[in-house]
Design goal:
Layout: H1 2-22, E1 26-28, E2 32-35, E3 45-48, H2 54-66, E4 73-76, H3 82-89, E5 92-104, E6 115-119, H4 123-137, E7 154-160, E8 163-172, E9 177-185, H5 194-208, E10 213-218, H6 220-228, E11 232-242
Parallel strand pairs: 9-10
Antiparallel strand pairs: 1-2, 2-3, 4-11, 5-10, 5-11, 6-7, 7-8, 8-9
Length: 246
């Protein structure tokens, strides 16, 4: 289980790092890594290498305060529970939680809906993806972040009878584990089974490509769907912001 938890966290961090490196905004020191952009709401993440301490929190605050956009600080419950109280005493406020989940990939799913996925390759696709994603989640991933020839991250648009209805990212951090990220369906097309169909498409593709595990970080809204598909919970991630930014 510890191995799968580490793979899940590593996959998420590697996604942020891939984007940061492509645009020259990934930074790493002995305390934390960060990816900070001034023209997009995402990634804008700072994550600690180890349990937060006074030694690591002080330089992290300096970096966060110097950045124009809001910065999210993900913190996993693989550390001492008392470190949550420490972070909050240092001015960090919890803003939302996610559940780390995994699925052992075996047999393919039978997809009932007429839904297809298309990889983003051109500028017009990237613009459409940005608009769909904002409709799904109410925050921005800038279209320009989708266009470099990444080694691992792949951005997809979901179509239902040729109508664009959703987004997803697949990110392979190694040959065993693939991460599913930014999976959403626009509000007017929800409650039709399309989110489940989209996940089934993504998982079937991952099985075809030979991956053994899929990982993700579920919101409260998506938790029931992922459980239905067989995903298991294995850690909690609390996302913080520095209080002055709220």
């Amino acid at each position: 289980m510890d191995y799968l938890i580490n793979q899940n966290i590593a996959n998420l961090c590697a996604l942020w790092q891939s984007v940061g490196e492509a645009f020259g905004v990934y930074s790493s020191n002995k305390y934390f890594d960060s990816v900070l952009l001034n023209y997009s709401d995402w990634p804008n993440r700072l994550w600690f290498h180890q349990q937060a301490s006074e030694e690591s929190v002080l330089p992290a605050k300096e970096v966060i305060r110097a950045h124009e956009k809001k910065v999210i600080i993900p913190y996993w419950n693989i550390y001492d529970e008392r470190s949550y109280s420490f972070l909050e005493s240092q001015g960090f406020e919890p803003v939302f939680q996610q559940i780390g989940m995994y699925l052992q990939l075996q047999e393919k799913f039978s997809v009932e809906h007429s839904l297809s996925i298309k990889k983003v390759k051109q500028a017009k696709d990237a613009l459409l993806w940005e608009r769909l994603f904002y409709d799904c989640f109410a925050y921005q991933i800038d279209q320009n972040l989708l266009l470099p020839q990444y080694k691992a991250p792949r951005f997809y648009i979901a179509y239902h009878y040729n109508q664009p209805v959703g987004t997803a990212i697949l990110h392979a951090s190694n040959t065993e584990t693939i991460g599913v990220h930014a999976m959403g369906i626009i509000p007017e097309m929800r409650r039709k089974g399309l989110a489940e169909a989209l996940m089934q498409h993504l998982l079937n593709q991952s099985i075809t490509e030979g991956f053994k595990y899929a990982s993700l970080q579920a919101s409260a809204m998506g938790l029931g769907l992922y459980q239905k598909l067989g995903f298991k919970e294995h850690f909690r991630m609390t996302n913080y912001m520095l209080r002055q930014e709220l």
